[in-house]
Amino acid sequence: MKKKDLIAIAETWFQEKNWKPFPFQKKTWNAFLQGKHGLLNAPTGSGKTYALWAPIVLEYIKDNPDYKTKKKKGIKAIWITPLRALSVEIQQAAQRFADDLETDLTIGIRTGDTSQSERAKQKRAMPDLLITTPESLMLLLASKGYDKTFKTLTAIVIDEWHELLGSKRGVQVELALSRLKTVCPKLRIWGVSATIGNLEQAQQVLLGVDENAVKNSVLIKDSKKKKITVKSIIPKKMETFPWRGHLGLHLLEDIVPIIKNSKTTIIFTNTRGQCEIWFQKLLEKHPEFAGEIAMHHGSIAKDTRLWVEQAIRNESLTAVVATSSLDLGVDFAPVETIIQIGGPKGVAKFLQRAGRSNHRPGEASVIYFLPTHALELIEASALKKAVKERVIEDRIPYLLSFDVLIQYLVTLAVSNGFIPAEIFKEVKNTFCFQGITEEQWQWCLNFITIGSQSLQSYDEYKRVEVTPQGLFKVESRRVAMMHRLSIGTIVSDSMLMVKYVSGGFIGTIEEFFIGKMKPGDTFVFAGRTLELVRLRNMVAQVRRSKKKTNKVVSFMGGRMTLSSQMSEILREELQSEADHKRNTPELKALRHLFERQELESIIPRENEFLIESFKTREGYHTIFYPFEGRFVHEAMSGLLAYRISLLSPITFSLAYNDYGFELLCDQPLDVQQIIDNNLFSTDYLFSDLQKSINATELARRKFRDIAVISGLVFQGYPNKMVKTKHLQSSSQLLFDVFRDYEADNLLYQQAFRETYEHQLEEGRLRLALERINKQEIIWKKCNKPTPFSFPIITDRLREKLSSEKLADRIKKMKLQLEK
Amino acid sequence: MTQTITIQGETFILDPTGSVFWQSKNLLLIADVHLGKVAHFRKYGAAVPSKASSKNYDKLEEVIARHKPETICFLGDLFHSTLNNEWNIFETWVKKKPTKIILVSGNHDIISPHKFEALGIEVLDQLKIDSFLLTHHPTEKEKIFNFSGHIHPGVRMRGPGRQTLKLACFFRTNNQMILPAFGNFTGKYILQPSEKDTVYAIVENEVICVS
Predict the structure, then answer these.
(1) A713: distance to nearest CA of chain B, Å?
(2) Domain ranges of chain A
(3) This model's pTM is above 0.90
(4) Tens of pLDDT along A618-641?
């Protein structure tokens, strides 16, 4: 059958449904049938499933003209999705198309939720299309004979590629693709991505450093742009609106009419804790919402989440309070309105959330922005501008992630075993590992075979063994099982399951929260008040409680940083404020606050760098305002504190937010000294950063993931915590051991590299310092904290840096006593 | 660098390695060395640097040279797990030592006592000397002062400018002293002392009373 005839089949199917294919769908069909690879840039809920599944089926029809009577065995395609929740939707859409065309093709799902019996069935006969996650694909590569299983593959589709790209799961995908390319000669690789700043690079990462593949590929963009309207919720009484905070509950009443006037509303919060609190407060203040509103976040049991998603679709809910767990995925047609609580920190994320509403063509998506403290209104103003100008952030891919490589090599050793020379060629062709040297490769091989770089006497290290034929293979069944279990582990703080005493799973909760509670204490989780009955084997057993409590479950981490694009627009907005133009309603509303700021200090212009100092009961505060986002501030505060500490022994406590950072000290700080000594210099930046203590602290945190992924830390068998106790250690302990005895370990060094590249954003830091060096430094000595400083000095998440002798510091400190 | 204290008229020296030297009895107390932990991890495929293990012997030599004890009493968890090659190293080390060695066994000590006894090491559940009781698990007994390990005690210190630090420590209550873990591949458990407790923190090479 010719390409034209094949496409006609798909078009006819669309006509029968009374649909019309979009231009991007047709373009994708054509490119795929020409045998090309590619990246499809299309937003969520735009028919991307049919853009790629249709040509896979058409290709099958072409290769098997008598497909209606004789079915060809073997898997045809893999569809990778980052979220398990999306798989059902894709399955239904794909099945409908396959059935209507009478192809008899089967579609199966394999994720962490798939039952053992279903997996066994799949092992005997793979479905024609397998929908799976990156981890589950890795697990398939860890089973014997995967090469025979996948030989018949004609296509692999990576959905939501933008989401995977900036993460280590993206590296897993890159490595899996490098293997599949060899195993399946007819493989076509396709990615689907929402709009990001570096789409071309995203395409390159997907295809690897393989000139032929890149040449034979296309980038297809859905040219249709959605209209988006941003409305800020401006407090009626600005005078009483707080200067700090992150919950935004002051404006709760303002969103009630919005909810009531719209069919379905999604209220996006930035953290799971915030989500819990908003849900609770909405019900408390408006009991009439009971049964009409729901909550959705990643720690709630899957069944509940699916129920909520279904309820949104059939319009039985008025509002859903959610976190980024609802950012991705399938269409929720009835959603009319989106409310964003607190700064979304990035334009791409904000646009994606806005896009969740109102899919009627031609109509604008409406998103309300609710500030959680006064200064966030500046962010709102900047956000509007960014949306108008369509400034979109990049996603930075990981480079040389040795932890993932080690995991991958053991995976291959667990299944068929591997010959290093063959695999090295494939690995070096991935984007992530294009820079890997022979030495680094050998290091990884030594790591998995002898556990160090030279053979030691008395050593019983055992993981991967080398056969006389040079095949790298795992022989021990125990090592193999431990490895398979660790592939899927989600790296996070120790998570505990929350269950009713009578059974019934409610969700997962972090150990640090539940660890502080005693049996009998009550807390709010998943919208219910629960009493802790007992903790047993990583399960918190609870029962319902009628007691009143204000303890709402909280979760660690997840603070986001302002993107560089947003930061720049923010500084522009301030410049206009310094000029007293007040040309947006948000800035007008902040008049009162700006006047307070100007009483003792200034609003910095684009060519000015503001430093404020004042004293409170807590000590001597010095605040710097680069307006570069919290990650850059984190790095800069550590750098500056380190450089000051070289001048004389001193101890700092550091705090930062998206606007600036603080050095808090028990003695006054001479800012003139900082300026005179040129401490904002970019000279020796890397070595100074490395010495500043918080780089080590940050690296220590990054090391946690690395230790788990590379198999240094084993998190235990599910529900069998006790038996592995002798093998449990904290990654913190390992980090110290490497620091003291094996500082050249590639995994240890990787923790630092990741810190500089992904956390401290060294590149951005350098640019920011260069900018400061061109600015005029304005030092204001104030009597009281200024409005700009307030959210920073009240931040409780702090880092420290000291050049005093430890023993001298201890003498100044107090023991923390029992509460 | 050490700290000398008196309990019930007896003199004890707290050593920054985490051990306690009982002067009049010429006895050194050491808790929670967890020998063989590194080897145990390596055996199951976690590549912990093996150098971390030899450091334990360096520390032992250092503290023995300082106090020259007649007897060493390990307060439990001397070995982390089942027999592995680390035992050979330990065997060689013990054979070279003229010091008498006693092991008060702990929850991790699952190696057969006969193996220890073959090396001339006495294995006990507890050891009572005068009005002092040496155990692995902290034990409350009237009129008796108890030295123990097991907990791996640590404390959190707070200072001006919102600084915090976690330090391993000797933790003393009215009639108990819990020793820090001696082994260098062991973590610590943060305790919250009350005002009646005395805490001696290990700060680099010093023992400092912080309460």
Answers:
(1) 7
(2) 3-221, 228-389, 495-544, 601-819
(3) no
(4) 889 999 999 998 888 888 988 898
